[in-house]
Structure formats: C-alpha cells, structure tokens
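Subject: Protein record for review, amino acid sequence with backbone structure tokens
How to read it: Take the token row as a discrete description of the fold.
Enclosed: The protein record, placed directly beneath this head.
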Amino acid sequence: MQNTPRGMRLHIGIFGRRNVGKSSILNRLTNQDTSLVSDVAGTTTDPVEKAMELLPLGPVLFVDTAGIDDEGSLGEKRIQKTKKIFDRVDLAIIVSENPVWGSFEISLDDEFNNRKIPIISVLNKSDLLDKNSLNTEAILVSAKENTGIDDLKQKIIKTAPEEFLNTSAIASDLVPPGELAVLVVPIDLEAPKGRLILPQVQTIRDLLDNDSMVMVVKERELREALNRLNKPPALVITDSQAFLKVSADVPPGIKLTSFSILFARLKGELNELIKGTRAIENLKSGDKVLICESCTHHPIGDDIGRVKIPRWLTQYTGTKLVFDTYAGHDFPENIQQYKLIIHCGACMTNRREILSRIAKANAAGVPITNYGLTIAYSLGIFERAIELFV
C-alpha cells in the first residue's frame, strides 16, 4: 500500500498559526522526522507532504503547512501556498495552543465549513495546561510528551469522509465479473519506457479485482484481436489519442470509451464536464483556452496538452485560439479571461482538487472539460464515447 498513488490517498492538511506545533504533530503521527522542527516561528516555509498507511483507514497523505499568521512579504507568499492546499484536502486538522480560538482559527474553520471539509480541532502543548479547568471538544495533544497522538489517529479514522471507506470503481462497474474488457494502449513517444502509464495500470487492477478479464493490445493489433474473439467484449477502453482509429476498428455494437473519460468520472463530475465540452461549439477566433495538467513533465515534441489538443481543437473550430498551460497544483486566479478550461485526466491528483477547480470554473461562468472528452468531440466521436454514461 506504500505504492498507492498520491491521487488515490486521503489528503489530510494540518493548519494553524506559526509555532503551535503542527510539524511536531506530523512527526508524531508518522513516527518520523518528516518536518523540520524548531522554536523559531515560521520554520515550515513550503508545504511538507508525507504518505503513510493509517490502518484500518488505509493510504493517507499528510500535508504540513506554513503558519496562517505568517508576516511580511515572504510570509504572505507562504500563506498563499498554504491556501492552495485548501483545494486539495479531504480532512483538515486545525492546531492551536489556546483553548479559545482567535480570528485565525475561526477563519480556517469558516473556510473549511464553506467547502464542506470535515474538521478536527487539536489543542497542542496540553502538558502546559490545567486539564481539569478545560472546557473543550478539541483533541488534547502534547507533541513534546507524545500524548494524545493515538486519540488523534482514532479521530482521523472516525472523521474520514465516507467515500474513502468505499473505493470507487474505475471501470469494474461497467464490466461484470467473467466478462472481457479490451484495453488499447499505444506504445509511442509519450509511453514511459518499460512500463504503462498510471491510469492504465489502475484500470487493469480495478478490473482484475472485480474478477473481470482483461486483454491489452496496441492500436494496430486491435482489429485482429477482436476478430479472434468468439464473443464481443463488454467494453473497449482506449487511450484518447488513439480514439479515431479505435472507433473505426470497433464495431458499433461494442461499447467504447477512454481512460481519460473514465477518470473524469472517478476524479470529477462527469456530467458537468460533458456539459462543458459542448461549449467547444461557441469558441471564436481569439478566444483563450486554459490547458491544465496535474503532473509536471518534460514536454516532448508532440505533447498531448501543448500540441495535439490545440491542433485538433483548432482544426475542428476552424479558428485561431490562444492556449495557456498550467501544470501541477498551479491554477490561475483570473480564470474569467478563458472561454474554456481543458483539464487532464487527473491521475496524479485527488478528487477534491478537481472538484475545487470545477467549482471555481462554475463560479466564474467558464465551461470546463477534460482531455478525453475534448479529443472525442474534436474528432467527431463524442456521442459514442459517452453513451455509456448518459
């Protein structure tokens, strides 16, 4: 389970003022010196992430953040980095050293309540307090004395959102046990040497866990592979870049979709992204389109986000569009300038971040879609690619 991708882990953020012991608590939770600890306020500058297994909950990712009360121009930048974590956390731990919350703690509480993110209140340095006089529902912890940590772990397990107790299906709900799924996996310049990309691996595992059968082929072998079967597969799943050829080779009676569209359902709100895709029809010359990638990688000559999608979209619309690209956890504040947002499949980030971005797009009135849906639409096979889900 240590190899569980970060995008599939429960993200737990640790927030609070400077020097309240956030990093010390993380070190106690992980039983490691994960974060640098000192008595100097503001020691944590950038968010520190640590993946671990919190049984019986499973794989989690703790994120230690800079103090929300940091000062000065550099402090403001640290606060902005901390606020970016708001978009990713599934569970928030608010740490204080005072039984009575001040404005910073209250503002954090309001922020997470507005986002419907569960909150755990932790009162650290409890070894310095008179516990008999305390009237608080917070978990009492002393990172210094290593007390209350087990109580905090139990509270995390009890407070975890329900969706993390029941693993969502990628494709196994579409392919009954004993039935066959054919996965089309191109081996091109973007395929990592010696292995498959993460969405393909995760889809295979999801199907096998469901006792479904899996056949993996390259796009050039698909037609011959289908001809050898004495029974049609329940589903064909393709890399979106091979959509056009695969659609031509798969008979109309066989269901077809792509890894990217399956991940749009897993990580986001598929109906919202489908609606956003139809906004492609409204694009005009000079319109700005935002391309968002969850991972950071060195672009190759025919990169899907920077080259292929802009090319296919330009060909389909017959207009000259302006494309901006953001990668990793970066997401622009002024998204109102864009007429369309196109997100990657999001295999490297979690559902919470994608839902946050969809919410921001909706608030700004900007349609949002993803790679697979955009490619299918641009190539004229959109309705077939989504008929499974509508």
